[in-house]
Amino acid sequence: MLLVFALKTYTVMRMNTLVLPKLITPVHAGFRDLELPEAFSWEAGIDQTAIHGLYVVAFRSLRNLQAPPEMIDQLLELDGDATEEAQHMPGFHTYWHDDDLSAEGYGLSFCLWDSREEAKHAAQQPKHRAAVMYARGEGREVYLSYDIETHNIFRFAGAKIVFALAA
Known about the structure:
It contains 5 helices and 6 strands. By secondary structure, the protein is of the alpha+beta class.
């Protein structure tokens, strides 16, 4: 069965990268309802020959389907600006964004980083902070709820990927 999703993948191309972002895709139409380790094709997109760890920040949301379109447009623009900013930050691998919400308004996106420290540093940058402040302030009608989840991802040479919830 072939699953097709409208999505954007933003990627920084690096020499000797351990992550092949275009291969990390949803594995099931109901991916938004699955735990993050089961929702995507991580095995296909993360190098199997190296010993390494990665850090993923996932954003699960329930969009207010009645939110004013101009608020949604503004938030999407700010999100795009923050993504562009993140692409130039050390440790950034990819940003996967779910463009098609579920019929109920559920969405899921994630950023993949080399480390928690690099992800936290990027979250303090001006464009990311502007998007967060808008979502919490003037644009607070866009989401009915959202949750941030973080995981450490480990792979030892030749072994399966292991996810561990990050504190």
